[in-house]
Amino acid sequence: MSDYDLRDSLDRTGFDYTVGEEPIENLGWKIKKATGNEVVIEHPTGATVHLRQRKPEGGDLPFRTVRVTDSAEEHQLAEGDWIDRVLTPALAYMRGYSERDEA
Fold it and tell me: What domain of life does the native source organism fall in (predicted)?
């Protein structure tokens, strides 16, 4: 994997991005796509979480974004904020969505 492979960051956090696997315990979310620049996590109801990495033209370093189906916006984040501001909220969103869906 390259120095800027999104999956490498997920590996370091223990986030399982294997296609077809559930990234968190038994909540119905499955990894639909996993590349060096995008991981898509999908719920059976159609809700999705997109973790993306993009390299701007003329830029040396990529930036990362997160988007969920409930939002029309992507939020750009600094590398240092990746775990605290992306993975933790994404997992919380997935847990909350699954709990809401079961009710």
Answer: Archaea
